[in-house]
Amino acid sequence: MSSRSQVITCKGAICWGIGEGVKVEEIQVDPPKASEVRVKMLCASLCHTDILRTQGWAYPMFPQALGHEGVGVVESIGEKVTDLKVGDVVIPIYIAECGECENCASEESNICMRYPLMVNGLMPDGTSRISVRGQRAYHLFSCSTWCEYMVSDENYLMKVYPSIDLAHACFISCGFSTGFGAAWKTAKVQSGSSVAVFGLGAVGLGAISGAKMAGATKIIGIDINEKKREKGESFGITDFINPKDHSDKPYSQLVKDLTNGLGVDYAIECTGVAPLQPEALESTKLGRGKAISVGVGNEEFVKVNWIGLLLGRTLKGSAFGSLKPKSDLPFIATKSQNKDIPLDELQTHEIPLTEISKAFELSKQPDCVKVIIKI
Fold first, then answer.
1. What domains are defined for the chain?
2. Cα→Cα distances 115→81, 299, 365, Å
3. Which residues is 372 bridged to in the sheet?
4. Are 269 and 199 in contact (CB under 8 A)?
């Protein structure tokens, strides 16, 4: 009997409900169906979105097998899988690229219409591949990387170099790439321009890297954590603002104070803190400024100064940094492989899967950027 036909019993990180934390449980992982791949996970990392999912965002679906950043090895494949084989090293990607639909054929969007963003915690056929204590468990997007094994449709996986640093592979599977793409693909930062980045976590540091690569000459990093100054400088900021040092001024005014009162060409909001979205928009130049919304938060609505929009500013959302996985992500993977971006600076903590609950506490530490989870 081939492994493709067998259910695997292994360990996985499960959240049973809002406020209940995460527990390592014995889970059952089904074999892959026709267009699916089962992956033996090697390494994963914690993203802010994982924390939000334990709080019920965007849909309260429990029990949930968490994790969406990671890297693993293909263990078995379905009979219709064509682009991957057993032994390939892969990372999960929650944005697909069919290459043929209206959006994939366009330069205007990376939201594939054939293989959409999965937000219901299930596979494209409406079922789950993971169960725990006899119950169906929901996936996180199209995967569950905090498990020893997981199943994903092949269209939500990307092959990477076998020699890639495992931590780096985790970082580019979501957070860092999202920020990098927000500057490179969404904002389309121009050489000689000015950029403000709100929030210097992994996404914000990715945005700084993307802005630097694009030739921005003034890159302002904004964070209330003073320890993020050094990280920002490692990735390319020219100026740092700690709003706690200027409590009498709004964020947007602090940016204008560094830009002769004009504001920046581009502002990239990476925190998901609702009041910072209008501040990001207000920090850009009248008539041409672009504010990019990247961060995810719990609030559904944000108040925006419509006069600022009428005067020529642009506010644009960005999913996965507007990156098309097959077309754009290899570029970032190559930069990682060539050490052109200092991804080593992102890893600040490492834990085994059995201590997954510690990851949430570590994420609150001032010096924490990314927690690596060894599977």
1. 3-159+342-374 (3.90.180.10), 176-320 (3.40.50.720)
2. 15, 27, 37
3. 45, 350
4. yes
At 285-307, the pLDDT tens digits run 999 999 999 988 777 778 888 89
Prior bond to 58 cis, omega within 30?
A: yes
Contact by Cβ (8 Å): 269, 294: yes
| 3-state secondary structure at position 302 | coil
- State phi, psi for 290 to the nearest 5 degrees: -120, 130
The answer to whether residues 170 and 44 touch, using CB atoms and an 8 Å cutoff, is yes
Per the CB < 8 A criterion, the answer to whether 368 and 348 are in contact is: yes
Average pLDDT, the chain: 95
Dihedral sign computed on CA atoms, order 354, 358, 360, 365? negative
What pTM value is reported for the model? 0.96
| Spacing of C-alpha 53 from chain mean position | 13
- Which structure tokens are listed for 68? 């969406």
Q: Is the pLDDT of residue 132 over 70?
A: yes
